[in-house]
Specification:
The chain is about 75% helix and about 0% strand. It contains five helices and no strands.
């Protein structure tokens, strides 16, 4: 299996974090982070994308699974930034579970 560059996760996380620190009017991320419902709007998107990912897996369409999983990972990262959770903290937890 070829090695894949996973730096996109760090890059995306940094972009989301920057949007939180430097809001932009036309940014989807900013609209989620500053939504009047707060974290509830982000959690709504995480739930929606979770369901869409499940349905994609059930359909057995690989491209759809990749597409919906990407949406889910993106919205999870928005949630992490909103709650001050870093990717390093997630990686540390996953490493602990591997032992």
């Amino acid at each position: 299996m070829p090695e894949t560059d996973l730096s996109i996760f760090n890059e995306l996380y940094d972009i989301i974090k920057d949007r939180k620190e430097n809001p932009s009017e036309n940014s989807y991320v900013c609209s989620l982070l500053s939504h009047r419902k707060g974290i509830d709007k982000i959690l709504e998107k995480v739930g929606e994308e979770s369901i869409e990912t499940i349905l994609a897996v059930k359909s057995e369409n690989k491209e759809e699974i990749i597409y919906e999983s990407s949406d889910l990972l993106f919205h999870l990262m928005v949630m992490f930034v909103a709650k001050g959770i870093t990717l390093d903290e997630i990686a540390t937890e996953l490493k602990k579970r591997r032992k």
